[in-house]
Amino acid sequence: MDGKTRAYFKQEYFKRSRVARALDSLLLGFLLWFGYYQFFLWALPTSRGAVLLAVLAGCTTLCALLLWQSIRFDRFAKQRAEELRNEALLWHLAQLSDNALMDVVVSAGEPLLAVRPVTGGFVGKTDGGKREFYAVFLRHPTEKLCASDLLAARRLAALWGAGALTVLSTAPLSDTAKNAQEQLSFRLIGPKELLALAQPLGLLPKDEAVAAAVEARVQTLARRRQSLKSSLVLPGAARRYAMAGAALLALSLLARFKTYYVFTGLLCLALALLSLLGLRRGARSQGAQNS
After folding, report:
1. 175 with 87, same domain?
2. Does 160 lie in the same domain as 172?
3. Residue pLDDT, tens place only, 88-141
4. Does any domain span residue 213?
């Protein structure tokens, strides 16, 4: 996984920029120190060791949280990379003709005789002499089949005199289609099964082509994400900082140690202002590039 892909996965997972994540870590570290400091100040007879113990406990907790977050991100990045890889492979299959997909199914060992292409798929006879209709849906992997698609496939099966129905699809089923699966009574050869059938036949692209397709897909998603961020007036990070700052300033009216709450609240408001200004600056630069 190259650096650009990993950087995009981090933005997709954390939903914040690198600067925003660094500021979040600093704010979290300060809040941890402050919480431990208050605890040790209450637990110890003197306040001499409270600061040092709070620093040690805060750094230990922060490092543990960052390590746990890193492990979760690595798991997410591996899963997301596999999803994009399968998406690229399925998109390659979706661009094949119905006849090519018919050859894939027949070559994979389906017990069919007298196979012939028809509208919407192909028809064949099983060993027992029963006619079976294979409905072919070559869709983009990000789309989903709906119940109406399955109903249309069942009607085509009746039109071609087939009692059995098998659905071949490069796209997954939607929730409504899953609910209708039992009522329409069909066999599904979905995205994973199609990849397993096509792999031994050498119909899938090479690893280099798949990697290039994944990289292009990541760049497209990154551009869409940047465009969406530029269109927002108030980013989520700035809103969270502003709400936290307002809450801390409100708590300072009730707390005994007002200085800490006021300082932290003002820090959160400053971070909210910096996040908002940074987003607007990015939106202006994006608009200048588009013009």
Report:
1. no
2. yes
3. 878 877 887 777 777 777 776 666 777 788 888 888 887 777 888 888 888 888
4. no
Same domain, 81 and 110: no
Same domain (yes/no): 81, 119 = no
Place of tokens 């230990």: 60
Q: In terms of Cα–Cα distance, which of 234, 252, 244, 251 is closest to 269?
A: 244
Number of domains in the chain: 3
User: Which residues are CB-neighbours of 139 under 8 A, at least 6 positions away?
Assistant: 94, 145, 169, 170, 171
Distance between CA 102 and CA 109 in Å, rounded?
A: 11
Would 140 be classed as within a structural domain? yes
Per the structure, the complete domain to which residue 170 belongs is given by 98-202
102 or 175: which carries more pLDDT confidence? 175
Distance CA 141, CA 90 (A): 6
Q: What is the mean pLDDT of residues 57-71?
A: 90
Residue among 154, 223, 251, 278 at smallest CA distance from 8: 223
Chain length of the chain: 291
Q: Shortest CA distance to 59 belongs to which of 81, 26, 83?
A: 26
pLDDT score recorded for residue 233: 42
Q: Please check whether residue 132 is in contact with residue 125, taking contact to mean a CB–CB distance below 8 angstroms.
A: yes
Cα(first)–Cα(last) distance of the chain, in Å?
33
At residue 16, the 3 state secondary structure works out as coil
